[in-house]
Design goal:
mainly beta, 4-stranded antiparallel β-sheet, single chain, bL21-like, structural constituent of ribosome
Length: about 110
């Protein structure tokens, strides 16, 4: 069984046992969380697509840890103007292990 969830402005296709990296969520390692925005659920009996979400469906997971991506450098230069700007950014991520998919009324 798989599901498509929405979190952090992005969509992720997940199945039980998957580990995904999502935008930073509050919580410590080992704490449980629930994703309520389930857009699609699929399995052996077919696929259910929400409009826009499936009522009563949820995906349960547990936080594995918090981490940050590698640093990216933003460099802007205006030619012939002696103007340049250098900036860096590291995005904060949360690693989540999917434990269960509840299809709700769709199953």
């Amino acid at each position: 069984m798989f599901a498509v969830i929405k979190t952090g402005g992005k969509q992720y296709k997940v199945a039980a046992g998957d580990e995904i990296e999502v935008e930073k969520l509050d919580g410590d390692a080992g704490s449980a969380l629930t994703f309520g925005d389930v857009l699609m659920v699929g399995g052996d009996d077919g696929v259910t697509v929400g409009a826009p979400v499936i009522e009563g469906a949820s995906v349960a997971g547990e936080i594995v840890g918090q981490k940050r991506t590698r640093k990216i450098i933003i460099f802007k230069k205006r030619r012939r103007k002696s103007s340049r700007r250098r900036n860096g950014h590291r995005q904060a991520l949360t690693v989540v292990r999917i434990t269960d998919i509840n299809a709700g009324a769709a199953a």
